[in-house]
Design a protein that fits this description.
Length: about 100
């Protein structure tokens, strides 16, 4: 997995400990434990939780991660029935930008 630096890039000066925990523990240690759970499964769980809570800025960032992990926009259709139709509309707005771009 690619080394995550978003915490340090965005909050390193303002909240250095939070940035360190984000980059080194959450993404460095937890996400890298592929023997326990695949990146695809982690992506499914993470996006499901973010969409269900309506946390769309974070969902947008994670949608960019899930695409290379093999998750399709079908995830949003499925979640629409469990987390809400309006949330699915919002999520599709984000996903459309990500999935419409060519690699």
């Amino acid at each position: 997995m690619e080394k995550q630096t978003a915490g340090r890039d965005q909050l390193g000066d303002f909240a250095p400990k939070f940035a360190e925990l984000n980059d080194d523990v959450l993404f460095g240690e937890v996400w890298s434990r592929e023997a326990q759970m695949s990146p695809r499964d982690r992506s499914l769980i993470t996006c499901s939780a973010l969409m269900a809570q309506g946390l769309f800025p974070q969902l947008e960032a994670h949608m960019a991660i899930v695409k290379p992990n093999g998750v399709t926009q079908e995830l949003i259709t499925h979640l629409a029935f469990y987390s809400g139709w309006p949330k699915a509309w919002s999520a599709f707005g984000l996903a459309n930008k990500i999935y419409a771009t060519e690699d």
